[in-house]
């Protein structure tokens, strides 16, 4: 087992990893930018190293500084959390070359799954259902036109190195395809330094359902059921829950087996997520694989009563998986509480928290890194905390969430708490009647 782990991240996930390490008897090192010197992850780690100014490119994304921090503190492993360098093949390789264990996927695995076109080809070879689309990258506009005719409109153009909706365009006819070709590639080039595009059939009325998986270096793999992430805005998740209200036992079994097949086919080591789109007829299609811990791992932990970060660390240390195929008996919901104004297009609202009180009680979990007096910096994502409720049924979990949101006080900055309060009362949400398009018609009431 590792003696000291450096957490190459910030905020609530850094604090989350530190807590598990302490329970495992592992020393921790926090890295931080000057904007995060007062963050709780800095306070609660055994050691802390300042790695630069607020800009991510000069701190949390600076591989040389992070490796140097490992060397001066004698850390023998790095946990990257999610975001930043968590799925960066070059960083994984640099850690490997410096004798530091990267608690995540190997460089080869990240490259294989990080490029969406390659990932899809790998999944098709493994027999995992995929959305009909181009077998590889689109060569030019004429090739895009030919492919769209074969797939049949509507189609979705996607950046092969994409994420967060960048370089993504829905085209309902050839005219829209011609208009989108240049703009999508320019956006992808600016965001990822790669303008490679591929095409897929556009799935109407889709659900975004992911399967939590785990695999070890001995070829064992299992799934830990699903999470429904369909409530999202601009491809950014807002609420997640498990089990999905759309799921059936038969569908869970089929999707779980497909996810395990995919995990074994690529000999995956660690915890990860296989993400699927599920259409209104309950046909499911591979979308992508995340080779890291997810923001929403919390709800799976609550329904299986097991620490996934602990499992992640143990797998990285060479232990066998302890997980098994799981069929949920409880229901958990997670609301992402962001420093955003939901009444004005979810505009980011950094600033000082003047008063803070978080909810408690049976079945309530809050993963947060803030406190009264904490200043939310404008340089990073706007996540303040994750509020999780767990109960015997979905209806009880929603009722518990309503109570928790009412008890959650954050003053000094605008937050998404009012949005979540209105969502929990929405008839379609309560009935489980929603798709990834839900937020396109949801209107906040003042």
Question: Could you list some keywords that capture this structure?
Answer:
446 residues, alpha+beta, Rossmann fold, Dna Ligase, domain 1, D-amino Acid Aminotransferase, Chain A, domain 1, 8-stranded antiparallel β-sheet, 5-stranded parallel β-sheet, 33% helix
Secondary structure tally, helices: 14
In total, how many beta strands?
22
Spans of at least 5 consecutive residues with low confidence: none
Strand content: 25-35%
CATH architectural name of the largest domain = 2-Layer Sandwich
The span between the termini is 53 Å
| Average predicted local confidence, pLDDT | 95
Question: Numbering strands along the chain, what is their spatial order in the largest sheet?
Answer: 13-12-9-10-11-14-21-19
Q: How many distinct domains? A: 3
CATH topology of the largest domain: D-amino Acid Aminotransferase, Chain A, domain 1
Rg from alpha-carbon coordinates? 21 Å
Morphology: globular
Give the class from helix and strand content and strand pairing: alpha+beta
- What's the story with the biggest beta sheet? 8 strands, antiparallel
Helix content: 25-40%
In the CATH scheme, the class of the largest domain would be Alpha Beta
CATH homologous superfamily heading of the largest domain: ATP-grasp fold, B domain
